[in-house]
Amino acid sequence: MRRTERMAPYKTRADLPDPIREHLPRLAQDIYKEAFNNAWERFADPSKLKYGGDRETASHRVAWFAVKKKYYKGEKGRWVRR
Question: Could you give all domains of the chain from N- to C-terminal order, each with its CATH number?
């Protein structure tokens, strides 16, 4: 099932946006989901948004940062564990 609406927080990997599910390995998807959900809760208080933007944008930014701590994009464009 293609997800076209925004969904937050994410309950399962299947709820993640298509590009995340299609390109990241399963463990990286789990990292993304957990980091996003934690950030989503933290940013419920708008005063915690330090760099502007909205709650969802900030949560995605945190999730990508968490993934990039454990994975990098290899030579062939595939995500590889560090």
Answer: 18-72 (1.10.1740.70)
12-51 burial, b at 16+ Cβ within 10 Å, e below that, comes to eeeebeeebeeebeeebbebbbebbbebbeebeeeeeeee
Which residues are within 8 A (CB) of 59 and not within 5 positions of it... i.e. 6 or more apart?
Answer: 8, 36, 37, 39, 40, 43
The pair of three-digit structure tokens given for residue 79, joined into one six-digit string: 């995500």
What's the predicted TM-score (pTM) here?
A: 0.85
Q: d(Cα 46, Cα 68) in Å, to the nearest integer?
A: 25
Q: What is the DSSP letter of 9?
A: S
Render pLDDT for 10-58 as a digit per residue (tens, 0 to 9): 999 999 999 999 999 999 999 999 999 999 999 999 888 888 789 999 9
Q: Which of 31, 55, 29 is nearest to 42 (CA)?
A: 55
